[in-house]
């Protein structure tokens, strides 16, 4: 499980850097300041959660079952949260109105919150 979590975290981080550079250079000319700021939020949260998954992959504080649960929540959460933000922010380029799917963004955010909450709860329950 550790290898899988760390490799996916690394891939997510790499993609976040690529998207961040793409936004800063290629999209800078195409998106409004507000759209670009929105796009950057997606990149930031993807990177934050890549680092979170790296921690989950290397920590011995939680068991494999909990790691797997957190891993799944983070992957789906990032796809829903950051992915929907990327799509919503680039509407002016794609011409596709993803607004009806905007509900996916808070669902993704909720999944990310739950992942952090599980880690918090498990650490609190640990014996000293």
UniProtKB/TrEMBL annotation:
Main location as per UniProt: membrane
Keywords from the UniProt entry: Membrane, Transmembrane, Transmembrane helix
Top-rank taxon, per record: Bacteria
Location relative to the cell: Membrane
InterPro entries: DUF423 (IPR006696)
Keyword Transmembrane: yes
Pfam families named among the record's database cross-references: DUF423 (PF04241)
Residue stretches spanning the membrane: 5-27, 47-63, 70-89, 101-124
Membrane topology (UniProt): Multi-pass membrane protein
Family from the record: Belongs to the UPF0382 family.
Protein name: DUF423 domain-containing protein
Organism: Flavobacterium aureirubrum
């Amino acid at each position: 499980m550790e290898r899988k979590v760390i490799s996916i975290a690394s891939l997510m981080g790499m993609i976040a850097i690529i998207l961040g550079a793409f936004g800063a250079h290629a999209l800078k000319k195409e998106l409004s300041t507000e759209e670009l700021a929105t796009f950057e939020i997606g990149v930031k949260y993807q990177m934050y959660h890549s680092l979170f998954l790296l921690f989950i992959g290397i920590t011995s504080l939680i068991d494999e079952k909990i790691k797997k649960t957190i891993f799944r929540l983070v992957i789906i959460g990032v796809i829903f949260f950051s992915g929907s933000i990327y799509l919503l922010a680039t509407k002016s380029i794609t011409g596709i109105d993803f607004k009806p799917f905007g509900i996916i963004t808070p669902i993704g955010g909720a999944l990310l919150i739950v992942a952090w909450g599980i880690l918090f709860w498990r650490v609190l329950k640990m014996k000293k």
